[in-house]
């Protein structure tokens, strides 16, 4: 009897001591209860109802160095935070008296059909969340959902391993590439990407010679060594890269309307507006602000090119906002990496949650067709006043 009591007490103590309190990093408080979670153990996936929950689950479960590697932004993380906060300054217009019974979330990206207007953005080292499947679970979950996945050139798995994880011969993927100073490496990778069946290159154009200084992660890793990016990357070099592949190249990391216009003038089919999740130039504007700037100064960009955008997207309302500003598709970086903690199931849940939110918000806004989302659905005056200055037209 005494022994039973002691065991019960020990069990209770163990339970109490394993209860975790997690710093939620100022994410919206939607009532996530972590009191029964155990540090280092993934909480039940079905208890996670939104993309922020997936981040907190990753924070609870991954090695602190791995979490920091995904979560970190550059310098003071001003751009990282701005990416998360910009949405509260946008108002969504919900129209009534409309038939929203026939929901359509399909879109095309560079002429390829996808079932969702959001995609998994290139993010390095998926193996930090899931050492077994790494990028392969992202390929499978994206393929099952009919959505686009764009693996990073700094992936855990090889270009060929990622390509061969496709769920069907019809699955379309693009691939990210950096402008390496080693041109042989660049040519070799572009050739392998094309041979492996990827249909386009997202070329990260603004890591010119260097990465952002990401303090949160270098506290674990020590200072970063030379990443091998070319610091001589100018328009001549861009033209040379275009000649190294027959795949369409989409410049990723456009952050000014001037660069957007340059890409248009150079005949690119698409651009990708991105501050890379606040990991590169701290102080760079959010995609909302850059899209507004392009709309103001070079509106023809949206008529003649496809525009993709990302940064801080955690809710379907954020997707809707970027689509309303003229983006054709919207990227998800960290959320996909965090969800991959659970492998394919986790990534599938992330997609399902965002898809459900998207259908819900669209219906509540009186729009059933994703391709019809336009600027009439948002009010951006608050952001415009802050960005362009009060009283500007
Ligand atoms: C862990 C991690 C690794 C990344 N690696 C790359 C990369 O290799 N190439 C690249 O162009 N962007 C990279 N990015 C940026 C993403 O493509 C994307 O722009 C960004 O994550 C979007 O912001 P979000 O994380 O708030 O969704 C990375 C982002 C993260 C979080």
Structure described in brief:
This protein is an alpha/beta fold.
Detailed description of the structure:
The protein has a single domain, classed as TIM Barrel, CATH 3.20.20.70. With 393 residues, it is α/β, with parallel strands linked by helices. The strands form 3 sheets. A 7-stranded parallel beta sheet has the order 4-10-9-8-7-6-5. It is 40% helix and 10% strand. Helix 3 (64-71) packs antiparallel against helix 8 (215-221), helix 10 crosses helix 11 (287-297) and helix 13 (316-324) packs across helix 15 (344-365). It is globular, with a radius of gyration of 22 Å. The site of flavin mononucleotide has 24 residues, from strand 10 and helix 14. Flavin mononucleotide binds next to strand 10 and helix 14.
Count of helical regions:
16
CATH architecture: Alpha-Beta Barrel
| Helix-strand topology string | HHHHEEEEHHEHEHHEHEHHEHEHHEH
Outline: globular
GO molecular function, one term: oxidoreductase activity
Domain FMN hydroxy acid dehydrogenase: 43-383
Signal peptide: 1-19
Cofactor: FMN
Which helices and strands occur, and which strands form pairs?
Elements: H1 2-18, H2 51-61, H3 64-71, H4 78-85, E1 91-92, E2 107-109, E3 112-114, E4 118-120, H5 135-145, H6 159-163, E5 175-178, H7 183-195, E6 201-204, H8 215-221, H9 235-242, E7 249-254, H10 257-265, E8 270-273, H11 287-297, H12 300-304, E9 306-310, H13 316-324, E10 329-332, H14 334-339, H15 344-365, E11 378-379, H16 381-388
Parallel strand pairs: 4-10, 5-6, 6-7, 7-8, 8-9, 9-10
Antiparallel strand pairs: 1-11, 2-3
The structure holds flavin mononucleotide.
The site of flavin mononucleotide has 24 residues, from strand 10 and helix 14.
